[in-house]
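Input/output pair, single chain:
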Amino acid sequence: MRTHRVIGLAAILLATVATVSVGQSAAASPAFNAGSMARACSAARPGSAACLAWVRTDIAPLTASQAAAPQATVAGLSPASLQSAYKLPSASAGGGQTVAIVDAFNDPTAEADLATYRSQFGLPACTTANGCFRKVNQNGSSTSLPSTDAGWALEISLDLDMVSAICPNCHILLVEATSSTLGNLGTAVNRAATMGANAISNSYGGSDTSDNSTTAYNHPGVAVTASSGDNGFGVSFPASSRFVTAVGGTTLRTASNSRGWTETAWNGAGSGCSRFNTQLSGQASVGTGCSRRAVADVSAVADPATGVAVFDSTPFQGRSGWFVVGGTSASSPIIASVFALAGNARSINNNFPYSHTGSLFDVTSGSNGSCSPSQLCTARAGWDGPTGLGTPNGTGAF
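Output:
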């Protein structure tokens, strides 16, 4: 197994992956509790990306048998909770759709862990045998797989579980890049598109860069989503690409209101202006404060403090079983799966949410740092950087 090095939390928060645009102030570090969570993957090196999952370390993982015992409770948001919060037709929609997950390295227990997650929550089986699940490398081979990395394996489990939670009727394609270089990840994205994915989720990020450097994320007729980042104010690629739907993050809690839930901007969600890429046409009228592409477009739960339940049996820091995980790594596959539930990817593009804001929950409070203009890092009515236009209220915006 490839040795996985977890970078100290303070170092991660100081080493932002984005370059702040002229006229914007530097972000304040997100108020993470360093003693209660850890980043799954090492920080991104030049030309590479890091996965964006954060793991709660203050909750001891349950084994599969412990979780299956009578009266046992798995910590973290369940499929039913997510479907309720976002008013999704998960039980009846998604048939015939394929959501692709693109990540780096190999998760050797991906299919078995997926089976445990779906069994725990009463979701239909999704296996290689029944044609629902497929795992390949970036060249399309199902036998010559990359080396194992424990952090990316946990990321993969998170992504597969979120597709299962949001779109249990969808097929799942897992494409594993040989390494975390943007070149290899881009090759894996292209592979997913050629293999018939309707939506492709990318839960990773590296330094903001130009779309001219790659064509990997430009797939008309496929909904491509990318996590906005987990270091607070500042942008990363591929979320800064004009060809993707950039997905920010929220803190999601139950509430005694008509929705039954409340959301605020997560202080770790990435946001800001790309230095290189063209503004989306839909952004011209929402007051982003950017002359180029602004991040994010939409959002979903990402705060590890209100994180999701994930099952992973490839040991991470000596622990395996049921974890609580967050980061915009969770929100990207959630939104990709909402696109699949809507079933419209073939006929729409990533500007579509900007003309369908009535089908989104506007998130109007919370911040991920300090900046100017303030909407780039502080939630408000309408578009803002950390949460974009808001979170799903059904599938009408997708």
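Residues 1-32 have pLDDT under 50 and may be disordered. Residues 23 and 372 are 7 Å apart (CA to CA).
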